[in-house]
């Protein structure tokens, strides 16, 4: 891919489809066109507009993976920049009300047209912060409000509570396995925030940080 191909992209047709997505009869086909014309989900600005406006999911630049598939993440999900998401990851913002007489959603979900909006269950927000990595088949349940910067969630984990910055967690329920990187390196990253930059600038800053700690193996960019 050329240097230009490593940037976020907006194609006129894709942008038009995103603006009219709500009334399009063939939404899956529209999404395929959008992503193909904008170099894939990782670089597609129009896909991000669809996710934000139609599904209540905000996705930062250069993030990719299964949570960018409509329906995989509940509303009020915020995904940061450069987030890596494996296949079949789900984020649930609500659960069935266990203190009700019936657990069936017809009694609490207004979209099923039987109850009004006031009967709906609480739908919690969740932030998946910059540079996080979620392995395959991770499930995030309503008790988790934040997965931290640079955190790693191992494949198959069920995340029931917040995950600290740079933590590696796994299991069901997910528990701390270890912390990534040494504390001075973590603090340097949090202070200088290379994930706020586009790839070329981020690459240069990551190289500089690795050099500062005399650890070239910390970064393998261009």
UniProtKB/TrEMBL annotation:
InterPro entries: Trans_hexapeptide_repeat, Trimer_LpxA-like_sf
The entry's keywords: Transferase
GO molecular function, one term: transferase activity
The protein, known as: Acetyltransferase (Isoleucine patch superfamily)
């Amino acid at each position: 891919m050329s240097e230009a191909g490593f940037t976020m992209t907006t194609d006129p047709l894709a942008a038009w489809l995103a603006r009219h997505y709500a009334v399009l009869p063939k939404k899956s086909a529209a999404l395929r066109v959008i992503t193909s014309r904008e170099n894939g989900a990782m670089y597609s600005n129009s896909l991000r507009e669809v996710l934000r406006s139609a599904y209540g999911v905000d996705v930062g630049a250069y993030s990719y993976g299964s949570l960018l598939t409509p329906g995989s993440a509940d509303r009020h999900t915020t995904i940061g920049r450069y987030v890596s998401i494996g296949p079949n990851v789900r984020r649930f913002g609500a659960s069935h009300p266990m203190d009700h007489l019936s657990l069936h959603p017809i009694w609490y979900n207004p979209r099923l047209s039987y109850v009004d909006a006031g009967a709906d269950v609480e739908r919690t927000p969740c932030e998946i912060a910059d540079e996080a990595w979620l392995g395959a088949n991770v499930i995030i349940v309503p008790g988790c409000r934040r997965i931290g910067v640079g955190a790693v969630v191992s494949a198959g984990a069920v995340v029931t509570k917040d995950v600290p910055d740079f933590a590696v967690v796994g299991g069901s329920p997910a528990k701390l396995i270890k912390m990534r990187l040494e504390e001075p390196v973590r603090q340097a990253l949090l202070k200088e925030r290379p994930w706020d930059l586009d790839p070329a600038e981020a690459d240069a800053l990551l190289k500089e940080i690795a050099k500062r700690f005399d650890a070239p193996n910390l970064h393998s960019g261009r």
